[in-house]
Amino acid sequence: MEIINIAIDGPAGAGKSTIAKTIAKKLNIIYIDTGAMYRAFGLYCIRNNISSDSNEINNILDDIDISIYHVNGEQQVILNNENVNEFIRDEEVGKMASEISVNKNVRLKLVELQRKLATKESIVMDGRDIGTYVLPNATIKIYLNANVETRAIRRHKELQDKGIIKQLELVKEEIKQRDYRDMNRDFAPLTKAENAIEIDTSNLTINQVVDKIINYIQEFTEI
Ligand code: DC
Questions:
Q1: Distance, CA 218 to ligand 1 centroid (Å)?
Q2: Could you say which architecture CATH assigns to the domain 5-203?
Q3: Which atom belonging to ligand 1 lies closest to the Cα atom of 36?
Q4: Which atom of ligand 1 is nearest to the CA of 101?
Q5: Does ligand 1 lie within 6 Å of residue 154's CB atom?
Q6: Ligand 1 atom showing the smallest separation from residue 88 Cα
Q7: pLDDT tens for residues 105-125?
Q8: Tens digit of pLDDT for each residue in 12-43?
Q9: Residue 56 belongs to what H/E stretch?
Q10: Whole-prediction pTM value?
Q11: 79-83 contacts: CB < 8 A, separation 24 or more?
């Protein structure tokens, strides 16, 4: 059967991972969360007191081995033989992931793994540069967006659900900073691929977005 690659990109809080995961389940294909790989890299740096300074990062590239596998459809990230899934969701790790992802060598290392995974079987992959750089020939490219207020409210609620109290304005400021860094780095920044369809999720439910994307996939593929 033909291998299908579905690339989903967009800024933090646009709904990428929830939507990509749901689509993968509906189509019975694998979901690959590339942000989790950058987060695992960031976690290594935090644990080992390594700053995002490029000289420091370039010196430790070979000390880091990141791989993934799936258990019941859930991606597990392995950092140097340790499953780090439960440690990579903190805000601090997300911020570090965004900082170290500016480094071209970090990106090349993780992109190599991502491209290999996409050749093996049909996948939905989400991130910041999937349609533009990692899989430029992806079968379907989606760019998910939402206004910054909506994304901040979503992130604020996620934090509240975890028992973390933070002012909405601060969450919004952090999202703006993350957007700026992810969109303005020199190498493979976050941007909509020319041939991606853009969906603004601000006023849509998860199911509405999923249905739109599934219809689009079915229109263009045999899946
Ligand atoms: O999607 P996320 O919040 O888990 O991603 C964390 C950071 O990792 C994000 O701010 C930028 C970086 N990232 C990237 O540069 N390229 C990707 N394909 C995925 C994530």
A1: 28
A2: 3-Layer(aba) Sandwich (3.40)
A3: 4
A4: 15
A5: no
A6: 4
A7: 999 999 999 999 999 999 999
A8: 999 999 999 999 999 999 999 999 999 999 99
A9: helix 54-60
A10: 0.96
A11: 79/40, 79/41, 79/43, 79/44, 80/44
